[in-house]
Amino acid sequence: MNTSKENILVAGANGTTGKQIISYLKESQYYNPVAMVRKEEQQEQFKIQNVDTVLGDLEKDLSHVVEGIDKVIFAAGSGGSTGPEKTTAVDQEGAKSLIDVSKKAGIKKFVMLSSINADKPETGGDLEHYLEAKQNADNHLKNSGLLYSIVRPGTLKNDKGTRKITAAEKVDMGKITRDDVAYTLVHVLNDDIAQNAVFEMIEGDERIEDALKAF
């Protein structure tokens, strides 16, 4: 691992958003990405890019994945479509487990990819269980003593990002690109940005850098 840059563990690196996070970390002069994946065959795509990897399963012991790590981005998840048991295992208990080992390891900041309306799961309809899992994971992070940022985007879409958002403690339901979410997650790794903050975000008219100054 790189010693001149901060090593950033990305849980969920093999996902669509996770891969974009890795890409932005690679471009940064401050960070070195470490892709956490569940299977050996998932490592090859990152090794080709000269990206460090670590094997880790959110449903198993995670103490080894934070060795040599400075900060963590949790971007893993079931998406709410794999059934309640998997959602609880990954989005809730997996996140809590990674938070716990991060706390023990002295991780400097933990960035959580959550979901809009995670503070009001009862409004989620079919996604109520998913939002409950996100809420429980978010609360565990807030109570952990770790420095954190909790990012709650609206409905994710795969278009090219605009770098412009609307961000607030509560926003109306809306959409946002995975690209802009990935960019935001990397941006809030900075110790001076969104420190111990929770915010929702959708596409909007304000530059990401300016919108996050409010937090």
Structural commentary:
- The protein is 32% helix and 24% strand.
- It is built from six helices and eleven strands.
- It has a nine-stranded mixed β-sheet with strand order 3-2-1-4-5-6-10-8-11, sandwiched between helices.
- Helix 1 (16-27) packs across helix 5 and helix 3 packs parallel to helix 4 (128-142).
Features:
single chain; 6 helices; two-stranded parallel sheet; 11 strands; Rossmann fold; 32% helix; 215 residues
Short description:
The protein has six helices and eleven strands. The protein is of the alpha/beta class. A nine-stranded mixed β-sheet has the order 3-2-1-4-5-6-10-8-11, sandwiched between helices.
Report the mean per-residue pLDDT as an integer.
94
Structural class: alpha/beta
Q: Ranges with pLDDT <50 over ≥5 residues?
A: none
CATH class categorisation: Alpha Beta
Radius of gyration: 16 Å
> Would you list the SSEs in sequence order as H and E?
EHEHEEHEHEEEEHEEH
Helix content: 25-40%
Beta strands, count: 11
**Domains (count):** 1
Biggest sheet record: 9 strands, mixed
Strand order of the largest sheet: 3-2-1-4-5-6-10-8-11
Helices and strands, with pairings:
Layout: E1 6-11, H1 16-27, E2 31-37, H2 44-48, E3 52-55, E4 71-74, H3 84-105, E5 109-113, H4 128-142, E6 148-153, E7 155-157, E8 164-168, E9 175-177, H5 178-187, E10 197-203, E11 206-207, H6 208-211
Parallel strand pairs: 1-2, 1-4, 2-3, 4-5, 5-6, 6-10, 7-9
Antiparallel strand pairs: 8-10, 8-11
Helix pairs in contact: 1-5, 3-4
